[in-house]
Amino acid sequence: MVKKNTILVAALHWGLGHATRCIPIIRELLKCNYNVIIASDGAALLLLQKEFPKLNSIELPSYNITYPLHGKNFKWKLFSKIPNIKKVIASEKRIIDKLVSEEKIQGLISDNRFGVRNNKVPSVYLTHQLNVLTGSTTFFSSKKHQSIIRKFDECWVPDLKGPLNFSGKLGHLKHSELNIKYIGPLSRMKKINLTIKYDVFILLSGPEPQRSLFENILINSLRGEKLSVILVQGLVETEQKKHQIDNLTIYNYMESEEIEKTINTSEIVISRSGYTTIMDLAALEKKVFFIPTPGQYEQEYLAKRLKKLDLVPYCDQEDFNIEKLDKINRYKGLNSLSNNTDFKELFHLFEGE
Q: Is 315 in contact with 291 (CB distance < 8 Å)?
């Protein structure tokens, strides 16, 4: 079969969520016989390289997003990085322009990387954040993000358009002139009926120092308890490492297939309330306890929304203790939403006239 056009899929390195939700997109592109080049930086790029070792990859400049020690300062730290972010956008745009001019790519899918677009080839922006929550500055941050989205040919939102959805006001606008396509929830995971082996599965992710603070809180809370616990640190490295602390088995990272199997054999999951994590755990139909990243308005909003819908309990990071887990069975848990996305039709954009 003759290969179709080459599509570059680029993920933002801000935790691992942007990279992991690109995995099902890449799988579908390959299934439809496209050539695919993967692009990102840091652990996000390494994760995609491990998932797709046969694909060509490109390292893009890093946005270098980190969290402050105190979550309440996150917004202002992010705003202070705007000059550096603008330089990164210009740099990644030069890389993309060169690839297009050399006819090495015929289409672009950018998961929240602002500079991965080009007027000469179809350019898609993948995001669930049509509204960007930043507290008192939400109106301005949302309008700015929408102005960036407008520069792309299409905006793919990994959610459903109607009232039954995961993203709430993040991914739904009352009025918009953006070229939005709701492509349904994306997940690299599938539910498999397996025998339960572990009491708790902990999935860590996100920038430092909050990732490490979160890990220490959970280890101190759960070690020595009569629970079998698997903890995945979210530290993607060249080799997988494993060690034991009392009743906790700790891995630096797991690839998708292993994570899928381990979560399917776990009773409950503790994690951040990141949007990609929510889509994955919904696909697996798991009972979950969420702990939002301090200062990240989006995760706090999603956790509160799911609690209000009587689906998942949550608490603030500094308030967590093992007794909080008793609340889980009072909630319904996450369930997958029906999704019949026609990816072949979706990718028709890359076929030209």
A: yes
